[in-house]
Amino acid sequence: MNIEELITIINTESIDSFIPLRDIPDEKTRSEYQARMGEDFYHFPYHYQSFQKAYPNLNPDWVYCNRGISPLYYWEEDTGILLKIPVELEGLKVGETSGSKAVEDIVLKELVRCKEEVQEANYSFLLRNLNGQMKMEYLNTLLEEKRQIKDLFSLFQACYVSTDFGAAVISRENLKRVMESMTDKEQEDLQARKQELPDVLTVYRGEGMKSTSYENAYSWSLDVNAAVFYAVRFGERQSRILAAEVRKEDILCFGSGGDSEVLILPEAITIQEIYQQEELPKLSEKLEQYGILSRIYRDALQENHVEGHDSMHALRTLLLAEMIYDKRHPEVPFGRTHHILAQAAVYHDMGRSLEGAEVQHSKASAKCFRNSLYGKMSDAAVVEFLIRFHETEQSISEHTLKQTFPGRDVMVQELLAILQDADALDRLRFGYRSPDSLDFHRLRLPESQELVLASRLLNDGLTNPELLWGMEEEMEEMHMELE
Hints:
Helix content is 45%, strand content 10%. By secondary structure, the protein is of the alpha+beta class. The protein has a four-stranded antiparallel beta sheet. A three-stranded antiparallel beta sheet has the order 5-7-10. The longest helix is centred in the N-terminal third of the chain and has 20 residues, at 100-119. The two termini are 16 Å apart.
């Protein structure tokens, strides 16, 4: 299990996963549960009797086993207080009482504190006691029970900004109650932020396999790159980026501070565009098809040494460029155009390794190509042009292209856009919120906008320089991941 899978499990801890401890009466049943559900990240440190022995002052009828980092929760039926029992996952022996007295004291002390807070209608203890979407689930439960909740809107907002999943568990009626609970100051702040926006604006949403579909979701963003992050961060299937139109008056609230997130009811959304992301099976097929290029140009690839712009960046740019071209021209057989793109990708950053050439590295890179073995080939002028202008933000004039490449100007212009987009897609390697990371709005071609997940998967899978000698082992690993 990697760190991202662990984060997902924490963020998706849910009341719906609870198993009452009373369903696990003895050691035999506990062992059966552990064997059957352990791989799904359940941990059963106690059965009913052993818990009773270890924690005599806690009612085992109110204890629940859970999938996630926190294996046990205590939910008092009479007070409605829910909190985790801080049991260690590692090295715990079932029925062992060593240390349980200290744990019991912590839970009892927290219960007293929570009861005092509840007397004042303060339920903020859920922020310190619950993980992931369970915060929203518990808040929704309190609202369903019609409990009085102090500072309801600010509590909801705190849950919202600290929870990746679960906003949609709040029912429409309960969400309405939350919004109606805003103080005059909170209403003023909301209206002030709305005034900064146009009457009709575009909002974005990123969805993966575990996300709530937009038809039932509330969470959107004013920042397309935030949506990109949420769509591909876990490398999930069924990833997509959505753009929608909304009236500013339909924004219920913002995330917090300078947060770009907004809450909007589904019926207020008009979908404008859905960018469905290419998935692993297609990516594996293209790796197999274009993997040969990594071996053809392996010596040149290995000449890219600059950190962040090394041989792996060049290789990923090559593969992404080939995939963009293939999506645009699926009928074109493997041939010379693929080599033009491959050479341009291999050499596009080569000049960064030259002393003092960083500011104008495209010129230096073009020179590196010109002096290489491939610089004498028939299409060398096209490759050199692509390298020379891959950084430019301004479009090359139609007149210049026609003069330089008579009869081929449209093709060269397209190849330049492909190389620029492939280079831009690999900016995911810099991480979300980095000033150097991918800006979705700057992708030039619609086909490129469907390859963000592919870029993410390539960044996860193509990091080993040994790839330059062949891709068989990595291909096998990616196929195993798919299975």
